């Protein structure tokens, strides 16, 4: 559905009105598969060449979708597929251009920030006590070399699972989960939901981390299907699964009356447990100010750039750096393991970008790091002080900043946001936190997202997904039911045009981009909105609900009035 919207936006506000040569890359799941991922590499090369681009939503295909696509491309088999062919292109493009993400609200004048009633809400978060980052082995590399993940099973022969180049000063981490512990957690989770008559919500990031979160999801849902599905039906309660970022946004912005929220991966689970505990006690205040989140993704590190898989038999997994064993742990058959690392140089680029953004826009900085038992995170605080000292040495006044735990960072972002605050977060945290913030701001379609690289390459995108459910309705109606909010896509186009105008010293184009943003904001101010914003304006009685086409038509009329 995002693609239908994007084509209409480009046709109406770019092709029809401007003399600009557009370079288009088809990053659809179909084309990524038919080119075996080569189109993603082409897109990265084009972005680096031209320095500015707009990216539409991308998707990671599930097993059923992959089988369907392969049936249409008989020249390919699963074993031949490059990961770029099936995964969402987002991570690869961010890594390819060395870019970090900043997300903040579009400055609409007529939208209320949501303040859902949380005080006393009967929602509990259930997470695992074991595994994850909490029981990881993590350290900062003292050498530059090749780091390997090696498995030794019953045969006694070492099998290399993964290798990558690592540099002195880079943080790395090995974590695993006990599959038997996951099963025990699942039984307790479902039994508690039945005993307390609560709907059960399960959230994991199985698409991006299939060999870790995905393994946990398969284990948990197999237990549900075999032993608890009928009991749930008998008790009149429901079970829901959703990607943890989308689920967190949905539950925080629209909390159910009574629920048991299962977030077994405790890296995220503990943060959400503490947030919900605070919300039930203090609620969500009237958030008058926009929230800006900077998410580190340039290094391709953390969970999103990890190696993850379940082991096929009992054995030992070892970390070897240039022939030296750095760590070893026992695993049982089926236990998921995750190895991740980050690049110190990319961390420094990101921290410098955060300070530049804060200085340009008079923002206060609130870093979220787990330094007390995470050497992995401690390198970030070292780099923060390093960047600050370099700014002082250059006679530059650094912006004010604080370093707090990620759980405290999340609570502050939601319950006590300053007038102008920026919240720099690591990759997975930033994904979850930014979706929560966007949902409280109205919807994911009312937030902007930009990816900035060290060399100045800028990629603008919408933070929402492809809206597949809305697309099915669109197809069923033969294109007559277009339920989609194109605000974020339009704002991304306007931002890209604005930068292009600056790069090419074209004041007319810069002026047009500003007029386009104004037309969008004025349309919503006039009460003309799509259905996802119903009841969220300052004057619900004066709202006019339109579909995607009606919304874009209203924006075009406002744009013509201005010009």
Structure report:
The chain has 563 residues and is of the alpha/beta class. The chain has 18 helices and 22 strands. The protein has helices spanning 2-15, 29-34, 38-50, 63-71, 83-86, 90-97, 179-195, 213-235, 244-253, 266-282, 344-361, 375-393, 406-415, 427-440, 468-476, 487-503, 507-525, 548-562, and strands at 52-55, 99-105, 122-126, 137-140, 145-152, 158-166, 171-176, 199-204, 239-243, 258-262, 291-295, 307-310, 315-321, 324-331, 336-341, 364-368, 401-404, 421-425, 447-453, 458-461, 528-529, 544-545. The strands form five sheets. An eight-stranded mixed sheet has the order 1-20-19-2-11-18-16-17, sandwiched between helices. Strands 3-10-8-9 form a four-stranded parallel sheet. The longest helix has 23 residues, at 213-235. The protein is globular, with a radius of gyration of 24 Å. The protein starts with a helix and ends with a helix. The model has no long low-confidence stretch (mean pLDDT 92).
Per-chain topology:
Blueprint: H1 2-15, H2 29-34, H3 38-50, E1 52-55, H4 63-71, H5 83-86, H6 90-97, E2 99-105, E3 122-126, E4 137-140, E5 145-152, E6 158-166, E7 171-176, H7 179-195, E8 199-204, H8 213-235, E9 239-243, H9 244-253, E10 258-262, H10 266-282, E11 291-295, E12 307-310, E13 315-321, E14 324-331, E15 336-341, H11 344-361, E16 364-368, H12 375-393, E17 401-404, H13 406-415, E18 421-425, H14 427-440, E19 447-453, E20 458-461, H15 468-476, H16 487-503, H17 507-525, E21 528-529, E22 544-545, H18 548-562
Helix pairs in contact: 1-18, 3-6, 7-8, 9-14, 10-13, 11-12, 13-14, 16-17, 17-18
């Amino acid at each position: 559905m995002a693609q239908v919207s994007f084509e209409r936006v480009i046709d109406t506000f770019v092709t029809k009105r401007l003399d600009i040569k557009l370079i288009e890359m088809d990053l659809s799941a179909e084309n990524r598969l038919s080119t075996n991922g080569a189109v993603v590499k082409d897109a990265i090369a084009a972005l680096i060449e031209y320095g500015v681009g707009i990216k539409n939503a991308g998707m990671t295909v599930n097993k059923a979708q992959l089988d369907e696509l392969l049936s249409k491309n008989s020249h390919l088999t699963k074993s031949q597929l490059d990961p770029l062919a099936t995964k969402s292109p987002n991570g690869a493009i961010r890594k390819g251009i060395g870019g970090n993400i900043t997300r903040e609200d579009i400055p609409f004048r007529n939208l209320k920030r949501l303040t859902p009633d949380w005080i006393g809400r009967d929602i509990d978060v259930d997470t695992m006590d074991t595994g994850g980052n909490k029981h990881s082995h993590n350290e900062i590399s003292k050498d530059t070399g090749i780091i390997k993940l090696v498995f030794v099973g019953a045969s006694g022969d070492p099998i290399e699972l993964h290798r990558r180049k690592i540099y002195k000063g880079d943080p790395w981490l090995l974590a695993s989960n006990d599959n038997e512990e996951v099963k025990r957690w699942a039984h307790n989770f479902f039994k508690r939901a039945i005993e307390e008559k609560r709907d059960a919500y399960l959230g994991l990031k199985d698409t991006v981390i299939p060999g870790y979160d995905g393994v946990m999801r398969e284990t948990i849902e197999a237990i549900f299907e075999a032993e608890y599905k009928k009991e749930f039906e008998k008790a009149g309660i429901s079970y829901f699964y959703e990607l943890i970022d989308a689920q967190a946004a949905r539950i925080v912005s629209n909390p159910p009356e009574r629920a048991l929220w299962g977030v077994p991966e405790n890296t995220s689970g503990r943060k959400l447990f503490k947030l919900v505990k605070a919300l039930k006690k203090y609620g969500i205040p009237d958030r008058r100010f926009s929230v800006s989140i900077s998410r580190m993704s340039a290094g391709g590190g953390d969970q999103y750039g990890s190696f993850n898989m379940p082991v096929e038999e009992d054995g030992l997994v070892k970390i070897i750096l240039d022939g030296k064993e750095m760590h070893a742990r026992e695993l049982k058959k089926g236990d998921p393991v995750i190895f991740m690392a980050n690049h110190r140089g990319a961390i420094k680029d990101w921290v410098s970008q955060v300070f530049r953004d804060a200085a340009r826009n008079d923002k206060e900085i609130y870093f979220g790091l787990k330094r007390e038992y995470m050497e992995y995170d401690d390198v970030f605080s070292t780099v923060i002080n390093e960047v600050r000292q370099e700014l002082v040495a250059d006679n530059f006044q650094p912006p004010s900043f604080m370093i707090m735990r990620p759980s405290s960072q999340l609570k502050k972002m939601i319950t006590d946001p300053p007038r102008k605050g920026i919240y720099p977060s690591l990759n997975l945290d930033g994904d979850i936190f930014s979706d929560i913030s966007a949902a409280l701001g109205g919807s994911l379609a009312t937030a902007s997202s930009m990816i900035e690289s060290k060399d100045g390459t800028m990629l603008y995108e919408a933070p929402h997904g492809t809206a597949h459910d809305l697309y099915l309705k669109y197809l069923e109606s033969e294109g007559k039911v277009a339920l989609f909010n194109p605000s974020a896509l339009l704002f991304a186009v306007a931002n890209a045009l604005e930068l292009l105008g600056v790069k090419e010293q074209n004041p007319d184009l810069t002026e047009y981009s500003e007029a386009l943003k104004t037309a969008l904001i004025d349309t919503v101010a006039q009460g003309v909105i799509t259905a996802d914003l119903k009841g969220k304006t300052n004057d619900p009685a004066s709202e006019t609900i339109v579909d995607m086409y009606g919304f874009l038509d209203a924006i075009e009329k406002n744009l013509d009035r201005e010009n």
